[in-house]
Amino acid sequence: MSEHTMRAITISGFGGPEVLTAQRIGRPEPLPTEVLVRVHAAGINPVDWKTRAGQGMAGLQTLPLILGWDVSGVVEEVGFGVTTLAPGDEVYGMPWFPRAAGAYAEFVTAPSRQFARKPASIGHTEAAALPLAALTAWQALVDTADVQPGQRVLVHAGAGGVGHLAVQIAKHLGAQVIATAQEPRHAWLKELGADEAIDYTQRRFEEVAGEVDVVLDLIGGHDATNVRSVAVTRRGGLVVSIPSGVSDELAAAAAKAGVRTSPLLVEPDSAALTAIAGLVDSGALHVEVERAFALEDVAEAHRLGEKGRTRGKLVLDVTR
Questions:
Q1: Considering only the top CATH level, what class is 133-262?
Q2: Which end of the chain is less enclosed by CB atoms within 10 A, N or C?
Q3: HEC secondary structure over 139-168
């Protein structure tokens, strides 16, 4: 095949998994300050299938579109002015978000400082599962909540992509960690560092969680999880609500209870990625990949992800 083309998964219209189409298209070229990365693996996130369906970040995109933001690969070429990376460097990142990054392809280009060196102790498949989820957890717990040793942190959806990383990051910060998940995930979550796990299908979390300093709400309005979280948050504590931001109902309940709230939309952050890589290489952070798919099997991956029962992350192995 021509060195000027690449395999990619494109969509020309929003819809179900069937709109994901494998094509051979032109390979991008790096502009000054950018790097061209040969993608070895691409992580899959809920924002991917929501955008594909015309939700999520769909309104910010232009069709035809290559989905995907999580990348792990090797620098192929550097543009003028790049000083921090060189061809052959193994990198990972979440470039351009929320603009399109085009990760479901063999090559991507982005500013060099939106990447960081891949954790040395894991392969590209595991590294590709990290950026968006780990950065979300990091920016929520470190930058937004400023979690301190001894604080109590409640993580909703603790067994999911962001949740299982948030449990570990909160524990690394010295917090006492409570996670909600169905009972079959409890033993695993405790291995990751959760001090307590609550099966939300059996008990209302507000009846058993006690008082917490920080809630990381990864569910939002479903079953009023966001509003109900106010009941367990101490006065002056913080609810970080991610999927749907701070709704009017959450804001009103929080104001009445003297609880702070914050939305969060994850941003590219090479400094945080470097810190996260350090946690991985030290053994303090483990990323769980439930399954890796070939690039052309992306529709099957989306169908599985949309069921909402994934333990950790799903990944595309672009080298297959």
A1: alpha beta
A2: N
A3: HHHHHHCCCCCCCEEEECCCCCHHHHHHHH
Q: What is the pTM of this model?
A: 0.97
What token pair was written down for 82? 């790049």
CB–CB of 47/57 below 8 Å? yes
Class of 5-130+287-317 in CATH: alpha beta
Count other Cβ atoms within 10 Å, centred on residue 183. 12
**What are the start and end residues of each CATH 3.90.180.10 domain in the chain?**
5-130+287-317
Paired tokens of 97: 């978000």
Pick from 44, 199, 64: nearest CA to 125: 44
Measured CA distances, 44 to 52, 125, 132, 173, 221 (Å): 12, 11, 9, 27, 23
Q: Where do runs of H (alpha helix) occur along the chain? A: 46-52, 124-128, 131-138, 161-172, 186-192, 205-208, 225-228, 248-257, 270-282, 298-306
Are the C-beta atoms of residues 144 and 70 closer than 8 Å to each other?
no
| Res 244: pLDDT | 82
Neighbours of 173 (CB within 10 A): 18
Residue 2 pLDDT exceeds 70: no
Pairing mode, if any, of strands 5-11 and 70-78?
unpaired
* Residues near 299 by beta carbon (within 8 Å), at least 6 away in sequence: 17, 18, 20
Per residue in 13-60, pLDDT tens? Answer: 999 999 999 999 999 999 999 999 999 999 999 999 999 999 989 999
- Look at residues 211, 217, 185 and name the one whose alpha carbon lies nearest to residue 198: 185
